[in-house]
Write a structure and sequence with these properties.
Elements: H1 4-22, H2 24-39, E1 48-54, H3 60-68, E2 86-90, H4 95-104, E3 108-112, E4 118-122, H5 131-140, E5 146-151, H6 159-166, E6 176-180, H7 191-204, E7 212-214, H8 227-263, H9 272-291, H10 294-312, H11 314-325, H12 327-331, H13 337-345, H14 353-372, H15 374-383, H16 386-403, H17 416-439, H18 451-472
Parallel strand pairs: 1-4, 1-5, 2-3, 5-6, 6-7
Antiparallel strand pairs: 2-4
Helix pairs in contact: 1-2, 1-8, 2-8, 9-14, 10-11, 10-13, 10-18, 14-15, 17-18
């Protein structure tokens, strides 16, 4: 379990989903495990996160350098030296460590391999003249595993430290360690007395049994003194925390098993993601073919041709169209445009292409529900049955169609009116030829070519050609 916090998030989600299935009372023991883990103060992971806190000049940065064995934090005479938090982190941190530092706004980070299960934060001074430092320190404290309060021989009785921080935060005392730094400045034989005085002051703050380390992180006359005792204590703390995290992982696994049993979800894994993608693609493809397939395209093309015939066919075409829409026309087999579109739309009815499109979904849901079993499988079959799935898809398509507005109708071309005028001329010509032939029957037998008949046939040919041109363009 590389990220206990992420595992707890998933556990909370599983508890909520299980409560929907079998009721809150059935899952309450497992919800209690999650609540107990959430109540833990500090970082949920095997890494120990320690913050160095203290007043100006107490030597927090020097202590970090002593733990690191090299200079990683700046030190100096100008106060405050540390104006923003600095994190000394393992070179390969837990995923949760990175997220924690991001949440805390700690951008300055230095990698280390000396202590792979230790993070040290060097915080701004608690008595800094910069007011924002105090606010930031107080926001960080509840999020870390331990706080090492660093004091020096001159300011370990500082009123700001005791009244504004330690007394108010005494409830966190199980997380507190105390370092009396710069003991090289205390006369020989006085260190124990100063430590005892510091312990008494801390007890007055409400900290009943404080742990104090006396050391010199950066003595002027040699290497750090007694820092190793503190480092060893932190390593032991890391060992204890590792055991605690292992116990937490075992609790989470047991809780997951219990949730599976109470809900009846005992399958090793439904592998939903892998199985869903091909079904989704097949269903979407079939729906697209049905909605915008060749049937609808053919019906739309036929409607356009009929419109061209009516608009550019002249009076005769209008008469034929009226006949086509009449009862006599329908009795003879003619079909209106809207009837043609309705015929195509009838494929939405059960038994048509729509059922074929959603059959894959039905089968997947059936398989998953039986594999899951228990209350979860029953709930899945009840909520995602064939009727419910079809209804949802139909509703989605209908909503999309409604949002798109009425279906567009073919628009007549402007030059069709010219063809319509030409068709009037053609009709008059044909009628004139007929009158000519009727008035002078002899004209049909004069010469090799009967002129009235030729004129009438030529007019008909022009009319038919113009109508065909309108239909194809």
């Amino acid at each position: 379990m590389r990220d206990p916090a992420a595992a707890l998030d998933l556990l909370d989600l599983a508890v909520a989903r299980a409560a929907d299935l079998v009721g809150e009372e059935a899952v309450s023991p497992y919800a209690g495990t999650a609540r107990d883990a959430r109540r833990r103060t500090g970082f949920l992971g095997a890494t120990v996160v320690v913050a160095l806190a203290g007043g100006t000049g107490s030597g927090k940065s020097s202590l970090l350098n002593a733990l690191a064995g090299e200079e990683v934090a700046p030190t100096g005479a100008v106060r405050p030296t540390t104006d923003r938090p600095l994190a000394w982190v393992p070179a390969q941190p837990e995923p949760g460590i990175v997220r924690l530092l991001d949440d805390l706004g700690v951008d300055d980070r230095i990698g280390q391999e000396r202590y792979p299960e230790l993070v040290v934060l060097d915080l701004p001074d608690v008595d800094s003249v910069v007011a924002d430092h105090r606010t930031r320190v107080e926001a960080l404290l509840p999020r870390v595993d331990a706080v090492i309060w660093v004091v020096d021989p001159e300011k370990y009785h500082d009123r700001v430290l005791h009244a504004d921080y330690l007394a108010r935060l005494a409830g966190y005392q199980s997380q507190f360690l105390f370092v009396l730094n710069q003991i090289d400045r205390i006369p020989a034989g006085e260190v124990e007395r100063v430590v005892a005085d510091l312990v008494e002051a801390l007890q007055e703050d409400g900290i009943s049994d404080p742990t104090v380390f006396a050391l010199a992180a950066d003595p002027p006359d040699g290497p750090p003194r007694d820092v190793q005792r503190l480092a060893q204590h932190l390593e032991e703390w890391a060992d204890v925390k590792r055991l605690a995290v292992e116990k937490l992982a075992a609790d989470l696994r047991a809780t997951a098993t219990g949730l599976a049993e109470v809900t009846g979800v005992t399958s090793a894994g439904l592998d939903f993601d892998r199985r869903w993608e091909p079904v989704r693609m097949a269903t979407a493809g079939r729906l697209a073919d049905g909605v915008a397939g060749p049937g609808l395209a053919t019906a739309a093309e036929r409607a356009g041709r009929n419109l061209a015939r009516r608009k550019a066919g002249g009076p005769l075409a209008r008469v034929l169209a009226a006949l086509r829409r009449s009862r006599l026309g329908r009795a003879l087999g003619a079909r209106q445009d809207d009837e043609e579109m309705a015929r195509v739309a009838r494929r939405w009815t059960p038994g048509g292409w729509f059922d074929g499109a959603v059959s894959g979904l039905d089968q997947l849901i059936t398989d998953l529900s039986f594999e899951a079993g228990g209350a979860f499988g029953t709930r899945m079959r009840a909520e995602f049955g064939a009727t419910e799935v079809e209804g949802e898809i139909r509703g989605s398509i209908d909503a999309a169609v409604a949002a798109g507005g009425p279906a567009p109708h073919p628009s007549p071309a402007r030059w069709w009116s010219l063809i319509a005028a030409l068709q009037v001329v053609v009709l008059l010509t044909v009628a004139g030829s007929a009158v000519w032939a009727w008035a002078r029957p002899s004209s049909l037998s004069q010469g090799r070519w009967p002129l009235p008949l030729l004129v009438g046939l030529a007019a008909v040919a022009v009319g038919v050609g113009a109508a065909r041109l309108a239909r194809v363009t």
